[in-house]
Structure formats: C-alpha cells, structure tokens
Specification:
By secondary structure, the chain is an alpha/beta fold. Helices cover 26% and strands 20% of the residues. It has 5 helices and 8 strands, in the order ββββαββαβαβαα. The longest helix has 14 residues, at 108-121.
Length: 196
C-alpha cells in the first residue's frame, strides 16, 4: 500500500470508501500513463491510502508498466501526481442493517476501505466480508481483516477460494448482483444481500 499526503500541507480532498483516484506516471521515454487505484482505507484528515498489486507477466499478459514502476521507484518522500478521489461505488457505511461486502481479486481494495470505516465507526453492525482469491497466498489486506474481527463481534469473514466463473459470469450478464446467484456461493447469507 502507498500512503499519500498532500505536498503543500492542506488536508487531502474529501473521499468516501469505494472511491478511486488516478495516478499519473511519466516514464524515461517521455510517455505518460494513467492508472486508477481504489482507496484502501477510509478517509482521514492526514492522508489517502491506495493499494497497488504488482502485475507480473504470465504467458500472454505483459507486466503492468505502471504498477511495477510504482513498486520500483516510489519511496517515502517521493512525489507523484494523483487526481482527486472519484466514483460512486460507495455503500451505506453508516446504516444499522446487515451488510455483505463481496469481492474477488484486486476488488478487495474498495471493500477493505468500507470494512475499516464500519469497524471504526459502527463496530456492532453485522458485516459479512466474503472475498474470492486463488488461495490464501493471494489474499491481500490480511492485517485489515484481522483488525476488524475484534471490534466487529458479528463479522463473518469468509475466504472463497474457488467460485465457479459461471456464477460470476451470470451475475455480470444479469446486469447486477442477484441474491439467487450468490445463494450457491454464500449458502444462507443470500437474504442479507444489499447492492451498493
């Protein structure tokens, strides 16, 4: 994760869990590329945090030029260009009703931001956090998940290591998450689902 502070001292721009910002990188050859990264921690008056998965080449897919550059060149004190936070993939983090935070792969970052905010501001709220990963070795933000457990007595963390692509594909093809789709993956949790 990269923790970002403003260069000239004012508070970082306002943000909400689930939003993202754009990072601009100019390479030695003069080319510039933008990448979007989700905020991976709730708003605070001092900084913004993004999590960047280092994309390595795997056969058909080349390495991630921007992600690798960030990991190889950015250190404490480095200056990078970023946008203000944007996006409307936000959830009701202040409500009292049960909430399910469901993600897969790098999609964990906006969910961690939401989980962390709920854990800090409403620790009695029932949260089901379910994340699909290739395996435990691919599970990011373990420390955040572990930190949410003691404050979130009702939290039900689950790691779904192999969800069939047919289930994920059906949800996407239907234009949104439907409780019946998740019933097979999350068993008795379907009645608790609410879309954001």
């Amino acid at each position: 994760a990269f923790v970002l502070e403003t260069l000239d001292g004012p508070e970082p721009p306002a943000s909400r869990p689930g939003q993202y910002l754009s990072v601009s990188v100019t390479f030695e050859d003069g080319s510039t590329q933008l990448r979007q990264y989700s905020l991976s921690d709730p708003p605070n008056p001092h900084s913004l945090r993004i999590s960047v998965k280092r994309e390595r080449p795997d056969g058909e897919q080349p390495d991630g030029r921007v992600s690798n550059w960030l990991h190889e060149h950015v250190q404490v004190g480095s200056i990078i260009k970023v946008s203000h936070p944007f996006g409307d993939f936000t959830a009701d983090t202040e409500g009292e009703e049960p909430i399910v935070l469901l993600s897969a792969g790098v999609g964990i970052t906006p969910m961690i931001s939401k989980l962390n905010l709920i854990a800090r501001t409403n620790p009695r709220r029932h949260v089901t956090f379910a994340h699909a990963a290739r395996g435990r070795g691919h599970l990011a933000h373990r420390a955040d998940i572990a930190a949410a457990k003691p404050t979130h007595v009702p939290t039900v963390p689950r790691l779904l290591e192999k969800i069939h692509t047919r289930v994920i594909g059906t949800a996407a093809a239907a234009g949104g998450a439907k409780a019946v789709i998740f019933k097979r993956a999350l068993a008795n949790l379907a009645e608790q689902l609410r879309q954001c």
